[in-house]
Request: fold
Amino acid sequence: MTPAVPTAAPDAASLLAAVRRQRWWALRVLVLPIHILVFALIAFFLVRLIPGDPARAIAGPDATPETYEAVRAQLGLDGSIWTQLGHYVSGLVRFDPGTSITNGRPVFDELMARLPGTVELAVVSFVILVLASLLLSLVVVLAPRSLDARIVSGYSQAAGAVPDFVVGVIGILLFYATLQVVPAPNGRTRPGLQEPDPITHFPLLDSVLAGRFAVTSSILSHYLLPIVVLVVSLAPLLLKQLLGALGPAAEDRATLFRIATGTPRRKVVVSIYRRALPPTIAVFGTIFGTLLGGTVIIEQLFGLGGLGTYAVTAVAGLDFTALQGTLVLVAAISMIVFLLSDVTTMLLDPRRRPGVRGSGS
Reply:
């Protein structure tokens, strides 16, 4: 009887090869905390460039030196800049950005209370932005020489030309002050209508889950103009990238072959979009980060509360801790979304992975 040959354990070379095959996404995940930390350090020093002394503002101009120093110690501003930096970084590692200077509440709790409303508006706007860009690009694909296609192409060239807050001001003047077809920009619901108790902490979703459809309708009416402002401002950015990818895909040999062989038009269009979307998805993370930043500004303009109001209040009150926490949170969310879009792109098109691009034809 032949003795059984024991199975050899994986050697170091095979394990190393397996690690190398996954490094295209693993390295991105590993460096994400480093990127967030670098931004947090930049935010720490930038915030301290804001003119003014929060301790002096709280203590008052007539406070004695002893009182002033006591207030500085209470606010955590009594040590050197490097001591403050050390406390700040150690707090971030524990997900504790500190205590608000103006109201004495934990900044983490304040951010978590306001974040869902901001994210909700940003996500709804992003979904509509993507759908609108796809529909507009379809006009160019189906009738590239038509007047509508030229208008869409011209609109895409306006990417970044007009800031979202300018479009917001124009929208308020036109649709509220002049035409009066949208509610007053003073919150998520009309006066006297109270939002339901938090379930998921997303206001629109909570109103649906609670069966408060009058609140749902009011929130949607107050969201309408901010969403339109964000979509109109940012659609050219996404549309320009999408049209730039659709052009080569429409003229590709694979497309011409399908047309020559009588493939139905619907299948040809699907094929064009399937090849054009991977490079466009890579831009989604950047677009969402821009959209999130625009949402914070638009929230303040339309009185929606959220992170926008919190950030503006922090600047006005010289609340370094609150402002730092807001900046780091928004940056972290943007970086995470960009990472997900980057990884998704490389999953859809492995040629975009490091070391693989252009390796074959």
Remarks:
- The longest helix spans residues 213-250.
- The CA atoms of residues 164 and 294 lie 7 Å apart.
